[in-house]
């Protein structure tokens, strides 16, 4: 009897030892896999930051929140797809958008044709497309720009839509690009811009509802008046806008001379977003593609991928706007100083 118990005990101990060895082996394999994943992520992040010789294609990432309203048939037990990007905040109202000179029929088309005729030459490569976009500068100022894309370069043009003439232009060759980032425009975590923007929007809303509306019509009841002071009007407001950034800085940070000079012409990147007219122009998405950053980004990515000599890294991630206080840019963007508009008795 004792011999049987002893043999049984030895068998159990041996089985326990075998199970422990298998567990340790599994843990080692899991740790190795996790280590490889972390290493690959680190390499990927490093290549994005430094503009290393890597090229990733992710055309499906161009789907944005503007198509969220379209629903597809799916089984009832299947979870609905989550929106990758936040909704756009529609810039300007449908009434104010008519003050833009570029909203008038034929103005943009004529201006683009003028730029193509005067500025593009055969050595610039095959013409791929043209857009009217919003350029966002280093100091977070929004400016109206015509953008021409060829197989060799991106041309950014400052155009006077009142006098219908070119003011300035800049050529950026695709061979010089080392990184392209496509994603949501965001501010650094320590930035005060979202808070200041929320306060400014809240004050504007209260003044409009409490002062202007009271002068135009009879005051409403107490409940409506209390609703005017809803704290949500003063909540921090992010950009809630997507953009594309073209970089040729080889992963190096900006010099102090460039970063703190608002008139510097040596900024090694360009940032574009959709023009405000995109959200108000009548017609289909194809009719409004001239004002759409997404269409420009798609064609730019295809142009990069078709270049065998390109070492540009295309990355889909948030685009950080290095603005921390932004009072001047907030004022500049609120009154649209970077756009040609009718402003009362004046136009500029």
TrEMBL record:
Belongs to the TPRG1 family. Residues 46-61 have a biased composition (Low complexity). Residues 102-247 form the HSac2 domain. This is HSac2 domain-containing protein. Residues 16-86 are annotated as: Disordered. InterPro entries: hSac2, Inositol_phosphatase, TPRG1-like. Residues 26-40, 75-84 have a biased composition (Basic and acidic residues). It comes from Iphiclides podalirius.
């Amino acid at each position: 009897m004792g011999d049987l118990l002893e043999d049984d005990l030895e068998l159990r101990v041996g089985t326990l030892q075998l199970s422990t060895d298998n567990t340790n082996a599994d843990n080692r394999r899991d740790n190795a896999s996790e280590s490889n994943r972390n290493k690959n992520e680190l390499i990927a992040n490093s290549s994005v930051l430094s503009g290393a010789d890597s090229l990733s294609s992710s055309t499906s990432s161009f789907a944005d929140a503007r198509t969220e309203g379209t629903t597809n048939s799916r089984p009832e037990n299947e979870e609905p797809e989550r929106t990758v990007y936040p909704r756009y905040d529609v810039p300007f109202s449908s009434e104010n958008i008519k003050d833009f000179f570029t909203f008038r029929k034929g103005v943009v088309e004529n201006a683009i044709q003028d730029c193509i005729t005067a500025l593009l030459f055969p050595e610039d490569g095959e013409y791929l497309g043209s857009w009217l976009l919003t350029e966002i500068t280093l100091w977070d100022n929004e400016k109206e720009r015509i953008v021409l894309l060829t197989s060799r370069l991106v041309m950014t043009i400052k155009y006077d839509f009142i006098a219908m003439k070119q003011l300035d232009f800049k050529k950026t060759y695709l061979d010089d690009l080392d990184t392209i980032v496509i994603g949501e425009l965001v501010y650094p975590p320590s930035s005060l811009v979202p808070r200041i923007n929320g306060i400014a929007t809240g004050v504007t809303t209260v003044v409009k509802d409490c002062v202007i509306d009271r002068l135009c019509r009879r005051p409403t009841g107490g409940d409506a008046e209390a609703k005017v002071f809803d704290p949500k009007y003063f909540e921090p407001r992010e950009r809630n806008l997507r953009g594309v950034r073209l970089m040729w800085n080889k992963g190096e940070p900006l010099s102090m001379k460039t970063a703190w000079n608002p008139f510097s012409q040596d900024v090694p990147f360009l940032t574009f977003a959709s023009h405000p007219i995109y959200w108000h122009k009548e017609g289909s998405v194809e009719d409004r593609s001239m004002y759409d950053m997404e269409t420009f980004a798609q064609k730019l990515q295809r142009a990069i991928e078709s270049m065998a000599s390109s070492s540009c890294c295309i990355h889909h991630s948030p685009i950080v706007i290095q603005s921390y206080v932004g009072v001047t840019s907030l004022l500049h963007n609120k009154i649209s100083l970077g756009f040609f508009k009718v402003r009362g008795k004046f136009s500029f």
